[in-house]
Amino acid sequence: MSNELIAKSVIKKLSKLNKNLSVAESITGGGLATALTDIAGSSKVFVGGVIAYSDDVKINQLLVSKSNLKKYGPVSEEVVLEMAQSCLKKFKTDYALATTGVAGPGMAYGKKAGTVWIAVASKKESFTVALSLPGTREVIRHATIASALSALERILKP
């Protein structure tokens, strides 16, 4: 399914549920917000987000702990979960999505290109998804957006 179709489904389900969404993006660099805002009617459910490409932004805007960044690195389950949970609180939304990873080419933070973490947070639950994606930088980022939207879509029950 294309990112556009998944984003449309997410927007439709959130609208039916009268719920809203925010995002905290690292690897996707605003692509997730773009995928959502490309859909007509998204303004009813999409509140906003933070592009936290640097550790400083993760710490200062999303309140990710310095100790977790140092211990686990920016591409980790612990950090992506903190990103999502902080985004949920910062924007006072019903749901938050967060993405972090290595798009490549090559390794970063001791992780190979295609290593991705996604988190979905709500007031009731939070969970993470680990991915190992093949392909170019563009393919990895596109697949990360699709995977994040799909993870949220699966739990939305209109």
Automatic annotation (TrEMBL):
SUPFAM superfamilies: CinA-like. Residues 6-155 form the CinA C-terminal domain. InterPro entries: CinA-like_C, CinA_C. It holds the Pfam family CinA. This is Putative competence-damaged protein CinA. It comes from Candidatus Nanopelagicus abundans.
